[in-house]
Specification:
heterodimer, A: 510 residues, alpha/beta, TIM Barrel, 8-stranded mixed barrel, B: 132 residues, Ribonuclease HI, Chain A, 24% strand
Chain lengths: 510, 132
Amino acid sequence: MTGRDDDRRLEELVDGIVVLSSGDLSNRLQVSPARDGIDAVTTGINLLAEELQSMYEDLEVRVAERTALLEAAKAELRRVINTDELTGLASRSLLQEKVAEAVAAAGADRQPALILLDLDSFRLINDSLGHAAGDAVLRETAQRLGAAAGAGHLLARLSGDEFAVLIVDREPDAVLEIASRLGESLKDRIVAGGVAVALTAGTGVRLGEPGLRSEELIRDADIAMHEAKKRGRDTLLVFSAAMHEAAKQRVHLVAELRTALATDELELEYQPIVDLRSGRIAGAEALIRWRHPSMGTLAPDTFLEAADEAGLTVEIGHWVLGKAIAQTGRWKSGPGLPAGFSTHINLSPADLHHLDLAPYVESLLARHGVDPGDISIEITETAIMRGGPEVTATMQSLNDLGVRIEIDDFGTGYSSISYLRTLPAAMAKIDKSLLDGLTTDRQQESFVAAILQLIHSAGLGAVAEGIEDREQAERLQQMNCEFGQGYFFSRPLPVADMTDLLAHGNGAAA
Amino acid sequence: MPDKDLDSPGGRDISSLDFDGDGILRLKWARGVVIDAPNAQLAMDRVNELCGGQPTPLLIDMATTDSVSRAARAVFAKPCDASAIALLGSSAVDRVLANFFLGVNSAPVPTRFFTNSDEAVRWLTSQGHDRA
């Protein structure tokens, strides 16, 4: 082989390498029959190119496999995100997506509508029959709502017992008909945990309007649903502008309430409780007031509901406990408390769900030099009945501490009489609604007598609230009701007046 | 190895396959053969057939092979009845081909490249086998 040949072969080799380096790894260089050094280099380059090509191909296959796995995982994730696991319905996120799509697609044409339903008293089912039964009820609810809504509407479960139906391309009348059908579909009893339960729901409807954004559609349906829940069981309400205004005011009120807590605009008044047998002051119920800078003094019923919605209840409950126990400590130091006197403090169900409530009360008592017997905690009958094991545990802890427990609003809740004997309570307060007609209606008098007898049979003392005149007070005293409070004795008093009463009232009221 | 076998499809790539007097099985590829996965597998099958399950020293004369594909190298890397393999070549090309195999693939049995047949036989014999 001549040197010229070698030059040519080397040139071909270089050309081949240039092709390979341009990315065409399939190119192979010609090996001559000489099998000399140039051929050896050529062979080596061919082998390396093949190796590289093969590695790239493997890599591409692996990338494709991994991409397919990722795509599958993404699809599965999307399915999980879009589906409510328990019922198989759409999730909140999918509903939001579909509402946005429906609003966008509607343009100026027929607008989508949203129906929200929240089951009434569902927590009772969970608490009394267990979560498995609760889940079975939710699954059955989902099926019934699906059947009632009919095909073509997106049905979603938004949270625990809250469902939504997105209605597209229907006249308002048809939407309302569907909403009503949804509520009706729940009324046939559902067997869960071996018990047949009847369901109702609070239903809120928002009919779409041109220009209404998807988040506004959802928000307004929610406002209507919450308003329906407030009005009682089995209520259907269609959103109105007034509802939005009220909701806005509530939001404003909550913001103000947060400021009020921080700036000491809240205060307590005390309504004396009188021993009907002796006429002496036996205690005082602490009642919260809000000295609103522009609206004047607000009673608790005007702001506690909003506080509850905003999650401020526990903070307010702690504030009340702190103030009332501190005040009791100050009264103890001067002018002193009459024998058997106790300050009555109302606690909400939310307060009672906190297992650290009893230690908190204990620390306040110690800090302010107050005996546990100087304090009574009032808990409504409904809170006790719906409270579940945490509330019972908290009541027991408070009782163990020596703080008296009083059942508030007795006779207004749905209670089983047998619980009266098992509760760690010392007193029951008869709701003022039971005093209507006490002195004019024989039947009502017998009824109140029976209730008092029931309370006494359970070993509890009785307090009657809302006493407005001497006749009522005397009648209750004759019926062996031990304690009473109401405007007849005294309105709720500012701290200074209550202190004055304790100092100069000589323990006597009215 | 009967001629008809070598004449079968793919068999033509093998020039000869038989035992020598030392009990070494010798495989000689046809001139200019391109060894790819099918003919590599055929050669392996033939080798195993002749070995009959007995570990046997194998001498592969690759002096005239044109190229060995990646897939073919993978076939040679599988366990077979060979107890040791001597790759016999003569040119720089053979050395590159053989060493690429030795470097990239891990041979299942002792494998070395030789340019001298006697040395290859000595090495195979020294490996100690039933037949050799």
